[in-house]
Each structure stands twice: as structure tokens, then as C-alpha cells.
Design a protein that fits this description.
By secondary structure, the protein is α+β, with helices and mostly antiparallel strands. Helix content is about 40%, strand content about 15%. The radius of gyration is 45 Å and the shape is elongated. Strands 1, 2, 3, 4, 5 and 8 form a six-stranded mixed beta sheet that branches. A four-stranded antiparallel beta sheet has the order 9-12-13-14, covered by helices on one side. It has a three-stranded mixed beta sheet with strand order 10-11-15, with no helix packed on it.
Length: about 550
Amino acid sequence: MARREMTVERFADIKRLIGIGQSDRQIARGLKVRRTKVAEIRRGEAVDPAVPKVFKDPFWTTGIDWETVKEELGYKHPLKFIWEEKAQAKTTYPNFWKFFYKKFPHLRKALSVPRDFNPGERAEVDWAGGKVEWIERKTGEIHEAVIFIGTLGYSQLIFARASENMKSRAFLEGHRRMYEFFNGVPHVTVPDCTKTAVSKCHLYDPDINLSYAEMAKFHQTAIVPARPYRPKDKALVELAVKLVMRYFRWLYRRHTFLSIAEINEALLTVVAKINSKPHTRFKVSRQMRYEKFEKGALKALPSTPYESIEWVEAVLHPDCTVVVESNYYSAPHIHRGKTLRVRLSENLVELFLDGERVAVHSRYRCRIGKRMLVHQHFPENAKAYYEATPQNLLSQARFISEDLFKLVVELFNKDVYAYIRIVQGFIGKAKKYTNEVGRESALRNISRAVSTMRSYNKFRVFYFQELLAHYRKEIVKTEDREIKRKPGNPMLRYAASHKNKSFNGPVQGAFDFTGATDTPKTLLPMTETINKGVHDGHSPS
């Protein structure tokens, strides 16, 4: 049976045999090919397999500017609309799109189709996973900076900024700087489901963080969080994170940063490099696409810059203060025990209850336990001293220890509300200590702790707890640790010898306790009996 496959080698052999004068029959029989094929090769009608095939384009394709079609498609116009305008009279739509993707195979849509957005419609934000180290020049301490990254949806223009941490203030500041960089505000901002953005996740109606919602209201943008564990919901910023961190680590791999400001300058260089580079899909740079189409579609920035606002919740303590950033701010005493919402701005601390502002203070930046008080918030001092909470603490202190009671009276005489928290800690630790070591030891050691605190003028709950723990170790060391066994226990070894003062029963094996210097008294009768048998030349058995 003749072989039908025509290879480059077989075609060359047929040409060679034809050249030396062999007949078609001889060649077909020797190489096992059809004689008609050999005849075609002899006449020059057969195509050499070594020559690549050249397909001619259909006639209808000659009158179409395919580069213009490609450009229009890059502007997100549907391919079917382009066909209706340029080739509907020449060919069908299936022929049109098949030839287009055959001519430009890299534009064929894959299984993962990139999403299309209108200019000014969308911006996505996220924190970069990697951190950037920088060294403090004065102390040599190594710090880590986190990178906030945002990108627009249509032009994919990228913004990046370094911050000290991922807290709410840095998150809101990153948005403000991003909108200023874009010179406008998008209609929708898409964050991750971080606590600084979303207080409670939900597929349809998530609870937006109050501070973040206030920032969005100020800039007139809608917050649409991505779903948890769905990174494709914000795929643009995920790609931007990868690009920025790759370029940054490559360009500054041998550089040591000394401040966050220096890192931000480097990020500006990296972002400018990425934004000016031609996009692989658009074939134009992000910056050009932004300037041409998206810059004018963004909302205008507010006339005044945004002031970062934080919202926290705090319970008004019996001392008429709430703790915010390790400092104390007073509120009217009639609201004690209620949960207040605290609004932190650049210079003010405002306290709200049920939407009504009940107090306002100047914000103190140093976290040193500063007490910002308004005297009108407190009841009369004489009345306050005999109110329920201080009086109850005095009664408990009197029951625990006289020395502790005297200390509480002195502290309350100085400032009742300033020391309520500390006295509550003293009483709680003293009660726990009394239950653990007993009344007698507790009284003695609580008095010692109070005396020590007076001598050093250091009235702190943690210090009081450390003193009690130290005194408890002393108690353990002085306790009698000798083990006393109850007599007459038949389960104890050699109990019978101790009871009868003699040992006459059989003993398995020979024992020698003559070299022992600390032989227990309970074993002496047995030891004497065994040793006596050995010295007499008799076996104990």
C-alpha cells in the first residue's frame, strides 16, 4: 500500500531520482508513493512541503482599515457596532470577528475577561501586602512602613503613598491624598473589607465605618466594598499592588531609607514610571488615557481640604470621664454608665449621646493620662464624696484592711473622681489576694504593700499587685515543707516494722545501709536486723 504522507525528505528524494533519469513507476515502487504524485512533481505542479503556505485574505478584507478597528475596540466600543459601521455591506458579522481575531490573536478574550468601566466611574484602593523598612537616623531603630495604593477604573492611573500604620487616620489620609493626586473624585470607591472601612460585612448592605462614611460624604463618593475573599472584585488595584511593589523593590534594592518622606518620594518616581509606560492592552500610557478621557469625567474636589475624623465608643465612668487615647475627658455626671460616641478631629474631642453633643474638649495629643475636666460636669464635691460609688469603695476598704481604708480616705480627700479607678483596682486585687492566702497573712502583707507605696509615693494598681506577689513568695519559702505520714497506714512500706519496733519476717534480697548517713528513723529496726544477720555470717533469708 502506498504511503500517502509527503514529507520534506521524501519530496527531495523524488526530485533527486527524477534528476538521475528513473521512471515514474520505478520511483513509485521504490519510495512507495503514487505514480500520479511523482508525475505532478515531475511536471512542477506539486507544492514543496518546505515552502510555507501563503493564504490570501478574502477579497472583502481589502477595503477595511484594521488598525482603526483595533483602535476603536481599545476605546471599549463593541466589535459588533464597529462591524455595522465599517463592514456590514461587505460580509457577515461571524466572518468579520473571526478574521479580526485571526489577524490580532492577542486581543481574543480569554476566560478571564477584563472588566470595562466608564471614565470617572470607579476607583479601587487597598494596602500592599509587603512592608518597606526604614531606619531612624538618631536611634538606629528599624521601622516598617505600609503602602496605600489606589487606581482609577478606566485609565488605571496608579497612586501610592507610605504610612506608619494601617489605622483609620492613615487610611483616611491616604484617600485624601489619592483624590488630590487624581485631581478629582470618582463616583464609586471600592475598598477591602478591612475594619477601617467596613464595620460589618454583608453581601447587599454592609455597615460602613462611621469615619469612612463621613469622609465619603464629604467627597461625594459612594463606598461599595468588595466581597470578603473575592479579590477579583478589585482586580485592578490587586494588579497595581503587584506592579508598584515589583518596580519599587527592583529600583531601590540597594537603597536604605531614613524616613517615610523619603519612601514617598521614591514611590512618586515609581508611580510616574508605571503611568508613563504604554499599557499592554491599551497600547497607550495610563497617563495619556487619563488626560484624554478620564480627567474631565471626575467630580471636582471640595473647596476646603478634608479634615480626618475618627469615631470611637466609650463608657462614661463613675468618675465622670471617658478614656480616649490614654487621656481623660469629662462629660455631665447624669450620663454616667452610658455609652457615648466620641468624635475625634484634628483639634477637638466631641462626646455625643443619641445624636446630641453633650461635651466638647480640646484634643490633647500626648498620651500621659491628662485629665481634661469641666467643673460643670461634676456634682458638688461634698455630695459626690458620699455618693454610692465612693461610699461603697470606702466600706469595702474598711472591711479588707484598716491601712488600706486610710489610704483610700487620703486619696479621696485629694480628688474623688481622679482616684476611683485606682481604688477599684486596689480593692479587687486585695480581695483576690485574701481569698488565696488567707485572712491573717493577707492583712499583714496588704499593710506592708500600703506602707511601701507610701514610702515611694507610687500609688499604682500594678505596683500594688507586684508587691503582694512578692510577699506571697516569701510565705511559700518560710512554710514547713516536711512530709508527715499518718501512723498505722498498712499501704506504707515497712509499716509493720515501725509499729512493732522489730522485724522478724522474711526479706527478699540483701541490703546494706551501713554507708548511709541519713537513714530514716522508720527503717532503723529493719536495718539493724539485716546488718546483724550479715555480720554473723548468715543470710538474711
